[in-house]
Amino acid sequence: MEKATLTFTDVSITVNVPPGTRIIEMSEKVGSGITYGCREGECGTCLTHVVEGAENLSEPSALEMRVLSENLAGSDDRLACQCRVLGGNVKVRPG
Amino acid sequence: MSVPPFALRPPAPRTTGPEGPVTVAPGVTWIGALDPGLRSFDVILKTSNGTTYNSYLVRGSEGVAVIDTVKAEFTGAFFKRFEESASYDEIRYIVLNHLEPDHTGAVPELVRRAPQAEILLSPRGLPMLRALLGAEFDNAKVRPVTTGHSADLGDRKLDFINTPYVHWPDTQCTWLADARVLFTCDLFGSHFCDGRLFEDQVDDFRLAFDNYFDRIMRPFRSFVTSALDKIEPLDFAVLAPAHGPILRSAPRDWLARTRLLATPRRKADSAEKVLLIFYVSAYGSTAQLAQAIHDGAEEEPGVRVSLFDLEGSDISPFLDLIEEADGIALGTPTINGDAVRTVWDMLARLVDIETKGKLGAAFGSYGWSGEAVRLVEARLQGLKMRLPEPGLRVKLHPSPEELEEGRAFGRRLAQQLTGTAAPREIDFAELAAR
Ligand SMILES: Cc1cc2nc3c(=O)[nH]c(=O)nc-3n(C[C@H](O)[C@H](O)[C@H](O)COP(=O)(O)O)c2cc1C
Ligand code: FES
Ligand SMILES: [Fe+2]
Ligand SMILES: [Fe+2]
Predict the structure, then answer these.
(1) Which of B17, B136, B217, B353 could anchor a disulfide with B323, C-beta 3.0 to 4.6 Å?
(2) Rg of chain A over CA atoms, in angstroms?
(3) Phi, psi dihedrals of residue B303, rounded to the nearest 5°
(4) For residues B261, B263, B266 and B269, what is the CA-based torsion angle, rounded to 10 degrees?
(5) pLDDT value at position B3?
(6) Domain extents in chain B
(7) Which CATH class is domain B273-433?
(8) Contact A31 B428 (CB under 8 A)
(9) CA-to-CA distance for A54 and B255, rounded, in angstroms?
(10) Angle between the B251-261 and B221-231 helix axes, to the nearest 10 degrees?
(11) What ipTM was estimated for this complex?
């Protein structure tokens, strides 16, 4: 199986993950400060800044795009409840 | 003939207020409403002087703009003042600086009466406007605006300044450059009803101004500071908030006051990182653990550690300390399957200050099930804190080895603060088991 890693810089923890894992599946367990409201891509609470490896995340859906733009998100910001790590190394911190 | 034991006095001008619209600046009119009887606002704030909902009308050579409205019960007063100032077909813009119901009560009806009007609001307000207008949203003319955008009224224009989280995601300010009026909605507001409306004419509202900040804005103090940074360069003559007096004789003083209120109450007295350890202990076990964590953390240079028995003080002074601290660790025994009441009281009060991004940790002694630590951790995460160290639990009285674990836990917390903690790697399966 291909390997992927996701690093939460605010708690200095790297998780080895199966490709396809969503950030939301890990961030609370490692104690990262990323927080969630709706958990389904609507509220923008889980806005997360991608420090490295943005290209290794799944493409944003139309809903995620809308919520990101309504939240005036930067080009390296994503919704942690939506995006998946597809492979390689990704580093994130709370938005 | 009997004489009443007290003389009947006419109602004070501060509760009756102006009959019609009031001129604020050339072509700018107050068309809001007074709510002198209000005694509690948003459930979270007492209002001994009632409040006002300030709505404004700006007239240009090519139409008028309505800036914010009022709470639903006051729609009648709002429309009456509006109709004395303009007609519905003149409305070119409805500016919504904030979508909370105390300012949008008249919006659905206003949109029905002025379907041609373009609704201008920050992008973060869109989901709330959809909820407010329901099925009518799709027919309304809506334009999201942010800093750099403006709206043309012919001989004058409105500029928008995006100032999020003062105190909702959607909040913005609107700037009328030619009249030097800044419409700030809740920012610079106070719950203080005085129908004379202007800062230089009303009763003393300083307490209401500070209280409004403390209850509504303090949890967002760094957002307030960034909003002030954006506003300060403007050459404003009038700050026109949506609650309480209009600030026109010393508007810069109110801005300075707000800056002071947005500064942590207790400034750190050194460059060291600050770690605060709070605990409650029935038989001394959690207290011993707290002391061990303190001693361990203290070994780390660059960290100032302090220990407090939560039962020894009111909570408010602790909040002032936590506001400026870099991290907190909370200790509680498990009693009846829960953290103790004093700890929950403290956790409940933490919403009054900004906790986002601070380091949090929980620890405690337990007898057989030990739920408390996990419950506190979940709450700290809910407060947007980061919890790099899983909580430390000890069964009953800590052994010497467990006290050593406590010291190591303290050292690791301190290292997280100084940025010297070693990076860790963990496997997904191990994590999933947590
Ligand atoms: C001071 C204040 C803060 C609020 N904060 C939040 C929030 O953080 N998240 C949220 O989803 N809604 C928040 N709201 C919105 C309320 O949940 C919303 O207005 C709700 O409809 C109020 O319900 P009620 O009519 O039962 O009081 C806040 C409202 C107020 C007044
Ligand atoms: S939690 Fe609401 S968008 Fe992710
Ligand atoms: Fe508000
Ligand atoms: Fe308000």
Answers:
(1) B353
(2) 12
(3) -125, 130
(4) -150
(5) 54
(6) 10-262, 273-433
(7) alpha beta
(8) no
(9) 40
(10) 150
(11) 0.92
Contact A18 B144 (CB under 8 A): no
Question: How many domains, chain A?
Answer: 1
CA B199 to chain centre: 23
Which residues on adjacent β-strands are paired with residue B40?
A: B46
Q: Which regions in chain B score pLDDT beneath 50?
A: 1
* Facing A11 at nearest CB: one of B382, B388, B432: B388
The total of other beta-carbon atoms located within 10 Å of residue B60's CB is 21
pLDDT of residue B373: 98
Q: Shortest CA distance to B385 belongs to which of B345, B304, B326, B342?
A: B326
A15–B contact, CB cutoff 8 A: yes
Verify whether the Cβ–Cβ distance B386 to A94 is below 8 Å: yes
Q: Which two tokens stand for residue B129?
A: 């406007």
CATH of residue A85's domain is: 3.10.20.30
Q: Report which DSSP code applies to B125.
A: G
Return d(Cα B361, Cα B367) in angstroms, integer: 20
Superfamily grouping for domain B10-262: Ribonuclease Z/Hydroxyacylglutathione hydrolase-like (3.60.15.10)
| Mean pLDDT computed over A28-49 | 95
Domain that holds residue A48: 4-94
- Ligand 3 ion: nearby residues, β-carbon < 5 Å: B 100, 186
Give all strands (DSSP E) within B112-222, no chain letters: 118-121, 141-144, 150-152, 157-162, 172-176, 181-185
Q: Which of A13, A35, A69 sits opposite B384 (nearest CB)?
A: A35
Say which amino acid occupies A88.
G
